[in-house]
Amino acid sequence: MFQKVYKAAIDKAASRIARNGRLVFVLSTGRVGTVSLIRALSSCEEIDAFHEPHPHSASDAKAAYLTGLTPRAEYVRVFEQARSRRVARTTLRGRIYFEATNMIYFAPLIAEQFPRSQFLFVHRHPGCVVRSAMRRRWFSGHPWDEYRICPRAGDPALRSWPTWSAFEKNCWLWSAVNEFILELGEDLPSSRFLSLSFQELFGDDANGVSKLLDFVGARSIAQSALTAELAKQDNQQQEGHFLRFDDWTPPQKLRLHELAGGVMRRLGYY
Predict the structure, then answer these.
(1) How far apart are the first and last CA of the chain?
(2) CA distances from 148 to 104, 114, 169 (A)
(3) Largest separation between any pair of C-alpha atoms in the chain
(4) Which residues contact 103 (CB under 8 A, 6 or more apart)?
(5) Which stretch of 29-38, 159-168, 224-233 has the lowest confidence by average pLDDT?
(6) pLDDT tens-digit profile of 191-207?
(7) Contact between residue 97 and residue 53 where contact means Cβ atoms under 8 Å apart
(8) In whole angstroms, what is the distance from residue 151 CA to residue 103 CA?
(9) How many degrees, rounded to 5, is the angle at CA 163 between CA 162 and CA 166?
(10) Quick check: 161 and 188 in contact, CB under 8 A?
(11) Distance separating alpha carbons of residues 72 and 68, to the nearest angstrom
(12) Is the per-residue pLDDT at 42 higher than 60?
C-alpha cells in the first residue's frame, strides 16, 4: 500500500514539474533523418535528446489517431505515465527535452497540456520516403506494421484499404501523417511550430540548422559542428530493392499523386 501511495506521489510531482518544462517533439513520417538529428543534438549541453524512447506506447499512439484522442483524460494519463518522469528529470537539470517521437498523434494533447512545448516538423519528398518504406517492407511483414495507422472512420480510403498493395498503403501513409502534422501546425503560433524539409537539414546548401537553433533557443553547439554531425546521416537504408522515384513507372507516379497529391502540393513537392 505504501509503495502505491509513494509511486502516486512521485508521479504527481513529476507531472507538475514536466508541465513547466521546455519540450520539443520532432514529428515526421519516419525515414527523414531523425536518428542523425537526435545524435547531433545530443552533443548540445542545453539539450537532452532521445529517439523514440521507451515506453514507445505504439499501440496507444495508433489508437490516438483512430479515436481522435477520445476519451481525452485517458490519453493524458497514458502520455504522463510514458513521459512525465523522463521530462521532469530533464527539466530539473535545466535542459530542453528533445524527442523524435512515434507518439505523433498525441501532439494536440501535448500542445494543450504543456504550454512550453514546441514541435519540429521534418518532411521529405514522398518518392524518397515511400521508396525507403518499401525497401524496409512496411506493410509487407515488417514487425511494426501493426502499429502503423490505417484509415479511420469517415476516410474514403477505409473501404479500399484491404485490397491495396503495400505501395499504395505507403503512399497513403505519407499523405495521412503529413496532413495530420500540417493541421497541428495551423493551430499553433510560429513560436511553437517549425516546418523544415529534409533538404533544408541535410542538403548541401542547408539553412535549416540555423532555423532550428533559433527556434529552440539553443546555441551552446556551433552551427558548423551540428551541420557536420548531420552530414553523417546515420540509419540510411542499405538493404532491400525499390527503384528511385525518377525511375518509377508512369502508373506508379500517377497513383502517388492520386493518393497524396493534395499534401504534396501543400509541401511544395508537386
Answers:
(1) 60
(2) 11, 26, 10
(3) 66
(4) 25, 56, 57, 60, 61, 64, 79, 82, 83
(5) 224-233
(6) 999 999 999 998 876 68
(7) no
(8) 17
(9) 90
(10) no
(11) 9
(12) yes
Amino acid at 199: Q
C-alpha span between 144 and 41 (Å, rounded): 26
Q: What is the H or E stretch that residue 120 is in?
A: strand 117-123
**All 3 cell numbers of residue 44?**
548540445
Mean pLDDT of 164-184: 98
Question: Which residue, 237, 229, 24, is CA-closest to 130?
Answer: 237
Per-residue model confidence as pLDDT tens digits over 62-88: 999 999 999 999 999 999 999 999 999
Q: Are strands 23-27 and 96-100 parallel, antiparallel or unpaired?
A: parallel
DSSP assignment of 34-60: HHHHHHHHTT-TTEEEEESPSP--HHH
Give CA–CA dist 66/129, Å, rounded. Answer: 23
